[in-house]
Amino acid sequence: VFHNPIKSDASEVYAVCQQPGFHKHALRPFYGSQPVSNVVMGIVHGSSKYARDAIEFGLAELVELGGDHHGAFFFMPNPKYHWNLDDIVTTELGPRLRVVAWWIHPAFLSNIRAWVAACGKDQLRVADRLLRVADRTRSPSSRMRRPSSDMLFPSEGQDHASLGLGAPGDFSYSGVSKPGGYLHTYRDLSGLANLEMLEALVAGVGRFVERILDSGALGSARLSAGFHYPVRPQYSTLHLQLRVNAGDVCGSTENRGADLFKLLSRLKADPDALAQDTEMLHYQVTANLRAAAIAAAREAGRLKSGIGLRFGARRS
Predict the structure, then answer these.
(1) 256-269, pLDDT tens digit by residue?
(2) pTM
C-alpha cells in the first residue's frame, strides 16, 4: 500500500471574480513576500529524494532555456498522480503521464546543475527503458512493470524525513527569500525576455516528450500543457503542467488554466498583455486558495468593500 501525502481530499469550491489590478497590486506582492518553498529548494539542492530518483530513473530532466538569464525548468512526474511508479500506465498511444516542470531562477542554476550532472553519471535509465518498451502482447491499459529496486517511491509509514528536505508533501517554506525578477505565476510574464523564455520552454517540452516516447507513439500522442492560476503560496513559483495521453490541463469548470501554446501566441502579439492586468477574471477555487487570496487582499489593504475580489456561493 502506498501513501500519497499530497493527494487532496474533496473540498468546498468558491466562485471568484477577480477585478483588474488585483494581481499586480495584491497577489503578486503577496507571493513575493513568501520565501521560496521547500519543494522548490529541495529540487534546487537535490535534497528531495523524489527528484533525485526521478533523474536516476530517466523520468526527470533539467531543461535549459538558451541562456543563464532565462533560468531553466525541471521536468519530473507530478507526485500528486505518480507517487508510485505503478501509477504510470501504458495505452495504445503510449504512456499516460502527468508531469510538472518547475521554473528555476537563474540564481539557483549552479546548484541544480551540479547535482543533476552528478546523478547523470550513474543514471540507471530504468524507467526510460520501461517507457520505450514495445511489448504489444500486454493489454492497452496494463500498468507498467516496476523496476526490481523499490527505492523510488515510499510506502505508507515510511519516515518522511528520509525522503529529504523538500520532498513532495513538504508544505513548509525555506529560509531563502525570492531573488529579484522571480516569476510566481504565468501572470508575471512580461516583456521580450519572458517571451523568449516561453518560446524556449515550448521547444523544451518537445524535446522532453520525444525522449520519453518511442518514435511509434510520438505521432499519435495527445499532449496538453499549461499553467494554473492562482496557486497556493507554497506553490508560488512558475510551474508548467504537462499531460501526455492524460487529459487536458485547461478547460475544466474551475477555469484556472492557461494553455501554453495559446499563451505564447498572445504574448507574441503583445509581450506586455499580462503586465497591464486589465482583465476581469472568473474562476473557482478551494478553501485554501480562497484563504490565500483573502490574505493577499488584507495585506494590500483591498479587503474593504470587496475591492479586488468577490466571492460567489460555495458548493461542495
Answers:
(1) 999 999 999 999 99
(2) 0.84
